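Recap for those who missed Tuesday's class. We walked through two folding examples back to back. For each one, the amino acid string is listed first and its predicted C-alpha cells come directly after. Nothing is annotated here on purpose, so try labeling regions yourself before you check the end of the notes.
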Amino acid sequence: MQAMIRGFDAPLFIPILKEGVVYLIDKYQVMKSKHNFNVLLEDLMIVLSRMSEVKEIVEDNTQYPDYHFNFVHFKDLPDKIYKKKILTDVIGIVTTITPVTKVQLNNRDVPVQKRDIYIQNASCESLKVVLYGDITLSIQEQEILQRNTNVVLAFAGLMIKT
C-alpha cells in the first residue's frame, strides 16, 4: 500500500524513518489515492500525520522485500504517454550514456542538469530515459561504460513523455 506524509509533517518523520526498516504504525488515516503520480494502482493509501505513532520492529526483516517494481514492457509504453495516474518502472541493459548538459526547461527559472541514458531490453528494443536535476550526477558514466559485462539499470517512478 502506498503511504504519504504531507510536507508540513515531513520534518517530524525524517529523523525517524529509515529505508530497509520495518515499522509498526498506529494512528494513521486511510484515504483515497491521489489522482496523479502514484507508485501503485490502488484505490486507497495511508496518510501519516503528527498524531501517527511509528515504532521500529526489531526482528528478522528478510521476509519483506526491500524494493518492489512493476516493470513495463517497452511495447506497452506508448499507452502510458502523459498518463499521470501511475508512474512507470522500466529495466534494461545500458547501451549509451550521454554527458551531463545544462538545459532550460519551460517550468524552471534556472537551467537544470540533463542526461540521456539509452537502455535495451531482451528483444533488442531501445529506450531513451532522460534524467533531470541532481539525479544525473548519481550515474557514474565512466564506471558503467568501462565494465566488461553488461550493466542493467532499473528506473522506477518515471513519467512517460515523447
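Example two. Treat it independently of the first, because the proteins are unrelated.
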Amino acid sequence: MSSGGTPKKKQSLVVVDAAHGGTEAQEPSPLKNYIFLTIFTCFCPAWPINIVALVFSVMSQSSYDQKDYDGSRRLGRKALHMGIASLVIGVLVILTFCGVYNANIGLITGKGLKNGLA
C-alpha cells in the first residue's frame, strides 16, 4: 500500500512499434515441454518412440530459449503426444510380456489351460 492508504496499481508494459502502431506486449506463456513425462517414458520398453519424444521436448526448450514461442508450443505438443503414445505402448508391451510369461509357466507346470486347448 502507498502512504495514502490506497493500493498501488501494477503498470503494464507497452511496446510502441512504428510499423504496427502501439500494442501491449504479451507475456510469453509458460513453457510446456513435458520433459518429466518424456524422461519417465524412457523407462518404458518403447525405445524409438520415447527417444523421439525426449528429442522433441529438448527442441521445445531450445525454441523457447530462442523466443520462438509458437515453435516451442508446437514441439511441446508433439513431445506430449509422443510421450503418451510411448507410455501406452510400453504398458501394452509389459502386459503382453507378463501374460505370455505366465501362460508359459502354466504350461510348463501343467496348471494352465486345463481344457486341453494347447
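Answers for example two:
Strands lie at 14-17, 21-24.
Residues 9-16 have pLDDT under 50 and may be disordered.
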